[in-house]
Design a protein that fits this description.
This protein is α+β, with helices and mostly antiparallel strands. Strands 2-5-4-7-9-11 form a 6-stranded antiparallel β-sheet, covered by helices on one side. The N and C termini lie far apart (38 Å). It contains 9 helices and 11 strands.
């Protein structure tokens, strides 16, 4: 049966539309292969498709279709590192009918292909702790501009990572990124074009294994995402908060920032 996300969403009833969006994102995570038919979900919630899409983008920063794509790729990362099943099977499990479309989306949102993820993730003992260094990854070209930011509430038990992304949500290879020392509250990122919008993501995470770092299995993750205009000089203050159901997943594997610093983009 071709299940739809609307099959898992109850009527709005006395709930606010905002809380209903959280229920929709929960249903997407629980059923990544199901279809997110905007009209059906809106009807289930008793609102127009336009009102639903607008509310969804306001809460998540993404359209329902793009949010679901991110959820599917998040699940695919976990399945790829769980066993040795063919990539084709995994793409079907997360709702893709076309292997080519799956690989293209996966590569765009993670920065590497499914095969590369498997190979790189298995290059270190799975139970070995991932210990990032406070070095930046930057593209091999002279930077035009630098953005500085300050983290207001970092904890000594956390690792901090920052990335500046061209997309409206953190995915793929960042324009620049760095791991931030626990004893430091400020960082600097470089970029190469002005006059565009970008997304700054800062995430704080507890110590984790290499396998969890590649698959995206984080505990007690705290995040802050700030939309920026790259043609404006500003020093944003980063205030971390716990991850919510309406937050898109962090798809760029954390170890990739360290690897890219030394080797450049993977072929």
């Amino acid at each position: 049966m071709d299940a739809s996300i609307s099959d898992y969403v109850g009527s709005q009833g006395s709930r606010t539309l905002r809380s209903s969006i959280s229920q929709v994102t929960d249903a997407m995570r629980a059923n990544p292969a199901s279809r997110a038919r905007t009209g059906n979900i809106a009807a289930r919630l008793g609102v127009s498709p336009f009102a639903f899409i607008r509310a969804f983008k306001c809460e998540t920063g993404l359209s329902p279709q793009r949010f679901q794509s991110a959820i599917r790729i998040e699940r695919a990362k976990q399945l790829l590192l769980k066993d040795d099943r063919p990539v084709t099977e995994i793409s079907l499990d997360v709702g893709y009918d076309s292997l080519g479309s799956f690989i293209q989306t996966f590569t765009a949102l993670t920065g590497i292909s499914p095969g590369q993820l498997r190979r790189l993730a298995r290059s270190a003992p799975p139970d070995e702790l991932f210990t990032p260094t406070a070095d930046s990854y930057a593209r091999p070209a002279p930077a035009e501009m630098t953005i500085s930011a300050c983290v207001s509430d970092a904890l000594e038990s956390e690792f901090l990572v920052a990335g500046l992304f061209e997309r409206t949500f953190p995915a793929g290879i960042p324009l620049d990124g760095c791991f931030i020392r626990p004893d430091s509250t400020s960082f600097h990122l470089q970029y190469f074009s002005a006059g565009r919008r970008a997304s700054l993501l800062v995430a704080a995470f507890r110590p984790l294994t290499w396998l969890d770092a590649w698959s995206g299995h984080y505990e007690a993750l705290r995040v802050c995402r700030i939309d920026l205009r790259l043609d404006r000089r500003e020093i944003p203050t980063v205030r971390l908060r716990p991850v919510m159901a309406t937050d898109p997943p962090l798809l760029t594997p954390l170890p990739l920032l360290q690897i890219l610093r030394w080797t450049g983009p993977q072929n």
